[in-house]
Amino acid sequence: MQGILLVDKPADWTSFDVVNYVRKMVAAAEGKKPKNVKVGHTGTLDPFATGLLVLLIGKEYTRRAGEFSKLDKTYEVTMKLGEKSTTGDPEGAITPISDTIPGQEALQEALQRFQGLIEQVPPAYSAVKVDGQRAYKLARAGKEVLIEPRKVTISRLELVAYTYPDVQLVADVSSGTYIRTLVEDIGQALGTGAFTAGLRRTKVGSFLVDQAQSVKAPDVLDHIILH
Predict the structure, then answer these.
(1) Structural domains counted in the chain
(2) Which residues on adjacent β-strands are paired with residue 78?
């Protein structure tokens, strides 16, 4: 069994949970042990996030993971103003920062500042490796995490709706962009603080979430495609 499987990841599942679930299904279909089946994903989604996860099935495809992981991505983002989170998302400790209510013009100006080629520092609670270890493991252990800034491209940062404290955005970004960091940086620019309250990935390269299957659909493996 070889190819690409587009999955709509549910909230509260890790990307590895999805990979592990599909690996067991493929193993059962092929009469193999799960450890002998190759399944991988091409870009992690945080547990609280939903949306498109591109899975690679079989050795021929998993060896192409780097090719697919470099594709641009589109996200629907809910940004909550006035508070910060230790993890940049709803799973962290939330702290009130400001009760200032920015006007829509100020918000648009802040969004404009973060379009194009920008520098961002990935969050401490991320899978970025620091001295050979995952940053989130160091952060959870209470150790200082120093991550070098990296250049990313924000092709589109469109305001969809704004009812304080919630801001709805659509973002087209390059591979390697951390939406949690982008939202925190916008909150800092506004002087209000912000964290990512909701996140849904709708596009990876030319793949759309509308083409994706529920991971628990009984016929999910029938939707493996060649590319």
Answers:
(1) 2
(2) 168, 198
- What is the CATH number for 20? 3.30.2350.10
Query: 217: domain range?
Result: 3-71+205-223
Q: What is the pTM (predicted TM-score) of this model?
A: 0.90
For residues 8-28, average pLDDT: 95
Same domain, 79 and 181: yes
Helix (H, G, I), strand (E, B) or coil at 207: strand
Catalytic residue ranges: 46
Do 167 and 64 lie in a common domain?
no
Question: Which residues, in sequence order, are bridge partners of residue 9?
Answer: 51
CA 217/CA 18 separation, integer angstroms: 12
Which residues on neighbouring strands pair with residue 116, listed in sequence order?
Answer: 154
Please, which pLDDT band fits residue 43 given cuts at 50, 70 and 90?
confident
pLDDT of 126 over the 70 cut? no
Mean pLDDT, residues 80-102: 95
Size (the chain), residues: 227
Burial grade of 116 (CB within 10 A; 0-12, 13-18, 19 or more):
exposed
Residues 180-213: tens digit of each pLDDT: 999 999 999 999 999 999 999 999 999 999 999 9
Instruction: Say how many CA atoms lie within 13 Å of 65 toward its Cβ.
Output: 15
